[in-house]
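Worked Example 4.2. Consider the chain below.
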Amino acid sequence: MGGHSVSMRSTSALPALGAEPAPGTANEATPSHLDVVEVYERHFDFVWRTARRLGVESAQVDDVVQEVFMVVHRRAGEFEGRATLKTWLFGITRRVVANHFRTARRKPAEPYGQAEPHDPRAGNAETALATAEGNRVLHALLDELDAEKREVFVLAELEEMTGPELAQTLGLNLNTAYARLRAARAAFEQALVRHRARTRRTP
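Applying the procedure from the previous section yields the following structure tokens:
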């Protein structure tokens, strides 16, 4: 993230969380042993990407992500494992983002936001720059979708959720989820066509 990297995932931003997790904790913690520090370390990138892709201004993403994990800390005891951890985190992120917009009372002003969290495995500088530019274009195109289409497109096309996972995460029946996804894909393609047309006209 322009000036933002995985190394910034300091757990000092979180409240005191008690004992260390037991050795051998599974990727998806059991409901009675949900460890917020582990959740933060494993899913920070997902929450950051989701907040940014749902339209939070790049300058505000860190604050929104911090609020998401504060909610996770408060509600850790409520996680019962009926949904995947990623689905649960998306629901929290979605509500925090909605509250952010209600408070701000405006849509994001930046058409090209920060890059996504830096992947230390990324290649050379040229590859990194190309990735950053691709992310900026992606965020600009997502800004052209309404909230419903944006959510379903992010989850299906970018987070690669299946149809049933998509329906569960958004609280939709499967047919509605697929119909919304078809509409989102069509809207995204139209936005991409407009972007390419603008690019061709740029000297």
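The mean pLDDT is 78. Residues 155 and 161 are 6 Å apart (CA to CA). Compare this with Example 4.1 before moving on.
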